[in-house]
From TrEMBL:
It comes from Thermosphaera chiliense. HAMAP family: Pantoate_kinase. Its EC number is 2.7.1.169. Belongs to the GHMP kinase family. PoK subfamily. Phosphorylates (R)-pantoate to form (R)-4-phosphopantoate in the CoA biosynthesis pathway. Transmembrane segments: none annotated. InterPro entries: PoK (IPR012043). One of its GO terms (biological process) is coenzyme A biosynthetic process. This is Pantoate kinase. It catalyses: (R)-pantoate + ATP = (R)-4-phosphopantoate + ADP + H(+). It comes from the Archaea. Keywords: ATP-binding, Coenzyme A biosynthesis, Kinase, Nucleotide-binding, Transferase. GO terms for molecular function: ATP binding; kinase activity. Coiled coil: none annotated.
Length: 283
């Protein structure tokens, strides 16, 4: 049996870089991978992608099985839903390409490249695959998947306590990208240069907030959280609200979210990227 554990990536800075070849397309930027993960298992004799027992991504599943000449599906359990900003589309495609790659005896690196290609071609993402490959706090400096793009996992100086919430909002990635003006991407590039220079998590949170305030509605965040002295930093990506909170203020922030009946989970920054666990002999 194969078990995959895939961290969720929430990008705070992204600047699209597109070309005629999807493997050389994607985005540069920065983001953090959460210790909150999805778990994926193979489903034999069924070419499907299931998210929390619901079939999704029918065309992508077909593409993957045709590419590997296999008939293997994947079932993924996740605390999140699609379109919320938690890189769930890339999570599903990483899971399906990796499982089929293992069953076909093919390259695991090529599986990540296939997942990235499908993300770009289908318009569901640009830079999540390479970030989830590494895990942790990642700065992306060249677009593309692992083996083609370039990204760096930055050591974090702090013991970071995160509260992750999902606000009542969703938006497909393609629509989000369409409404962002070129001038805002230029601002993002300037912010990215500062973060890449300092490699500091606090600088990243400040830059991510400044960048995403021009894209998403921060008025949807409870005012008590924005005013709280216990919040070290926060940013919003679609509905994904990432709050860096001082340890002594965790209960205060979770109580606010509970009163608002908002979903939340406690998390940290992941220490690892995608993990593959075999029980028994590999297929």
């Amino acid at each position: 049996m194969i078990k995959l554990t895939i961290p969720h990536h929430v990008s705070g800075l992204w600047i699209p870089v597109l070309s005629s070849n999807p493997l050389f397309s994607g985005s540069i930027g920065a983001g953090i991978n959460l210790s909150v993960s999805s778990v994926a298992l193979p489903v034999e004799d069924e070419c499907t992608i299931r998210l929390n027992n619901q079939k999704v991504f029918h065309e992508q599943a077909k593409d993957v099985c045709e590419f590997y000449k296999t008939k293997v599906g994947v079932t993924v359990e996740s605390p999140f839903n699609l379109g919320k900003g938690f890189a769930l589309s890339s999570t599903l495609l990483i899971a399906h390409t990796l499982v089929n790659s293992i069953y076909a005896g093919s390259s695991l690196l090529n599986a990540f490249q296939k997942a990235h290609e499908l993300e770009v071609v289908r318009g569901t993402g640009l830079g999540d695959v390479i970030s989830q490959y590494y895990g942790g706090f990642v700065i992306r400096t060249r677009p593309g998947p692992p083996g083609i793009g370039e990204a760096f996992k930055i050591p974090v100086k702090y013991r970071v306590k995160l509260i992750v919430s999902s606000l009542p909002y969703s938006e497909p990635t393609g629509k989000m990208l369409e409404r962002i003006p070129l001038s805002h991407y230029e601002k993002g590039l300037s912010l990215l240069k500062k973060v890449a220079s300092s490699e500091d998590l606090m600088d990243y949170f400040n830059a991510a907030k400044e960048y995403t305030q021009g894209i998403f509605d921060y008025s949807s965040i409870p005012a008590e959280i924005l005013r709280s002295p216990g919040v070290v930093g926060l940013y919003l990506k679609k509905s994904a609200l990432i709050i860096w909170v001082e340890k002594d203020h965790v209960t205060e922030i979770t109580d606010i979210l509970s009163r608002r009946q908002l979903f939340f989970m406690e998390s940290e920054i992941s220490r690892t990227g995608v993990e593959i666990e075999y029980s028994g002999k590999p297929p």
